[in-house]
Amino acid sequence: MLFRSVLVTASAFAILLPPVYQSSGTILIESQQISTDIIASSVTGFASERIEVIKQRVMTRENLLRIIKKYNLFPSEKEKRVTSELIDDVKKRITIKMLSTHQRQAGRRGGTATIAFDIMFEDRHAELAFGVTSELVTLFLSENIKSRVERATETTKFLSQEAQRLKSTLEKMEGLVAAYKKDHA
User: What residues are paired with 105 via a beta bridge?
Assistant: First the structure.
């Protein structure tokens, strides 16, 4: 009897609850060649740190407000709730989960590392769940490209400065060698 009443209650509860749809997007990051010594110890940590930085840049108040407005996520609640409550609600419905770190040997010099993570969003409307997830994936990819370009620019600038410094050092050494040869011919 108890089992039957629990079953009936659970069934009624499941039928009466509105459905919740979850849309997810998987992002696969395949990094460039890395030394096998580095792969084992730091790729997972580096990837999760990088994903966390990108997450912080994507999950800003400005971006989340834009998504709320674009997809009209809370049509009846906008006037009743404070903006920060709406943003907190959206954040609760977003899940970002690391999936795996796969390391492959690629010859003697090094290997490659593959990192994947899921971005998920839940909503009572399947179209909204898909749209918001798609928007978040696009933001993550854009932010990743932006940060890679920034890093490449900084690296290029540093290498140019180092090349210039080494060139001036070399010119000074050549001058000293020429002066030594002239004095001790």
Answer: 111
pLDDT averaged per 10 residues in sequence order, the chain, 185 residues = 80 76 86 49 63 90 94 82 91 88 54 76 93 95 88 88 93 91 85
What is the C-alpha separation between 8 and 14, in angstroms, rounded?
10
Give the bridge partners for 140, in sequence order: none
CB atoms within 10 A of CB 71: 18
Q: What is the pLDDT of residue 169?
A: 94
What pLDDT, on the 0 to 100 scale, is given for residue 65? 93
SS3 for 59? Answer: coil
Return left, alpha or beta for 72; rule: phi > 0 is left, psi -120 to 50 is alpha, else beta.
Answer: left
Q: Which residues of 163-172 are buried (b: 16+ CB within 10 A; e: fewer)?
A: eeeeeeeeee
- Containing 24, the helix (H) or strand (E) segment is strand 21-30
DSSP structural state of residue 78: T
Residues 6+ apart with CB under 8 A from 110: 33, 34, 35, 36, 39
What pLDDT was estimated at residue 52? 86
Question: DSSP 3-state assignment of 110?
Answer: coil
Spatial CB neighbours of 73, under 8 Å, sequence gap ≥ 6: 67, 86, 90, 123, 128, 132
Q: What is the model's pTM?
A: 0.71
